[in-house]
Amino acid sequence: MYLEHFGLKEPPFRITPNTDFFFEDADRGAMLAALAYAIQNEEGIVKVSGEVGSGKTMLCRMLAQRLPAGVETVFLANPSYSREDILYAIADELGLGLASRRASLALRELQDHLIRRYAEGRRVVVLIDEAHAMPPETLEEVRLLSNLESTRHKLLQIVLFGQPELDEALARPGLRQLRDRITHNFRMRALTEAEIGRYLAFRMRAAGYRGPDVFTPAAVAMLARGSRGLTRRINVLADKSLLAAFTGNQHAVTPRQVRAAISDSEFPVPGRLTRPVSWLAAGIAVCAGGIFAGAAAHWWIAERVPESAPDRGSVMAGQAPAAATAPQARQVPVSAPGTAQNEEVHSLLARDQVRRIAAYATAGQSLLGERIAAGRERLQREPDRSYCVELFVTENSDPARLARFLARARDLLPLEDLYVIPIASGSRYRVRVVYGAFPDRDAAAAAAHRLPPKYQRAFRTELRTFAELRDAV
């Protein structure tokens, strides 16, 4: 909502890793160069650790981009792989169909394949995210994979990305052999207050902003305390602060807006930094009910959002609103990522539909949880006549399987445009995965034709209206 207000081309503080917004200050650029050097010089296993939200996944994505063309990367984002699964997961990513189901023979097949790749001048690097959550026996399999080598060269480079718990796991006596094979250790540190100021300015300009710094020094200082220097928290608080400034028709973010953003979040904050406030959530609700009239935008404050607001596009075109076919719109609590539990917006989903979606258990798969939350948010606000591309509907609702699909999909499609929608059927769930949100059927059909060839072969895509999606929920 605030893009035009600040002259931005895109949101500057999304939490989804976008390599266009990689911040090379605060040792990030130097660490990236050191990682690339270690891999190109076959330096064994490399470990990168850092707190939740410190930027490990962004660094991992940048590393995959910065490696030379002759280096092939395998990205594994699922920490629940068993000892055997990780071997077959790597083979799948390399396009190698292992003939044997015996681990010892499969390992030999993989080694022969890697030798052929090396002879062709190609090398393979395995980037393992969330490595701290891997079972000990899977970590031990990682050590065995690192032993794959020719007479003179390593055939498989491995980089482990994980939270500080990874260091604790590797300190166990049973994993000392793996620990001894780690030749480089990198630690992602929190950003200082000065670095946070530069980070905010960099992200704003990368998103198209042209002007003086939006965040005042006092706001940066408060944001530093509230985020503890963790980039994901910085992004969440900065985004909410911009929204608060927008609702107040201000072009500078001051401590007042940051205080509201912190109060609207659930991050532990040292000291008495905040007081309860409610105007940020109220401002969001007000903006959701805005209309565009004449040549200027005027946001009118109302006591409550109308029960059935017309499609804004129809109002602008002077058309009468079409009759709604989805469940009656009403005020329901929305728990989108990074918002307060008591925030209310105009929703096109009924309360029981929201509850059914929330009842699906993600088994701790954070990526899956994010895309389900994004799908629910999209269902709550997308007009009935908007279209999406349905990739597939599956009876197999295993969270780990869906998380693996999403981890691979982000290399082919923008992950922020993929939505996962659980569909309750009695005590069981089916899961629908859809792509994008388009104003009409023609635009959705064009997007379906632009899907990666791999997906066009694998899926029998269908074009669905958001009214259909809501009815199924």
Say how many strands there are.
13
Q: Strands of the biggest beta sheet: in what spatial order?
A: 2-3-4-1-5
The stretches of 5 or more residues where confidence is low (pLDDT under 50) are: 271-345
SS element count, helices = 20
The H-level CATH homologous superfamily of the largest domain, spelled out, is P-loop containing nucleotide triphosphate hydrolases
Task: Describe the main β-sheet briefly.
Answer: 5 strands, parallel
Number of domains: 3
Bulk shape: globular
Helix content: 40-55%
End-to-end separation in angstroms reads: 27 Å
Which structural class should the secondary elements be placed in? alpha/beta
Strand content: 15-25%
Question: How large, in whole angstroms, is the Cα Rg?
Answer: 24 Å
CATH topology of the largest domain: Rossmann fold
CATH class of the largest domain: Alpha Beta
What is the architecture of the largest domain at the second tier of CATH?
Answer: 3-Layer(aba) Sandwich
Q: Mean pLDDT, rounded to whole units?
A: 81
Description:
The chain has helices spanning 3-6, 28-40, 56-66, 83-93, 103-119, 136-146, 165-170, 176-180, 193-206, 217-227, 231-247, 255-263, 279-288, 312-317, 351-358, 366-381, 399-409, 441-449, 453-458, 466-472; strands spanning 45-50, 71-76, 123-128, 156-162, 182-188, 291-293, 296-298, 330-333, 344-347, 387-394, 418-425, 428-438, 462-465. It has 473 residues and is an alpha/beta fold. The protein folds into three domains: 27-188, Rossmann fold, CATH 3.40.50; 191-277, Helicase, Ruva Protein, domain 3, CATH 1.10.8; 360-472, Sporulation related repeat (Alpha-Beta Plaits, 2-Layer Sandwich). Strands 2-3-4-1-5 form a five-stranded parallel beta sheet, with helices on both faces. A four-stranded antiparallel beta sheet has the order 11-12-10-13. A two-stranded antiparallel sheet has the order 6-7. Helix 9 packs across helix 10, helix 11 (231-247) packs across helix 12 (255-263) and helix 11 (231-247) crosses helix 13. It is globular, with a radius of gyration of 24 Å. The relative contact order is 0.09.
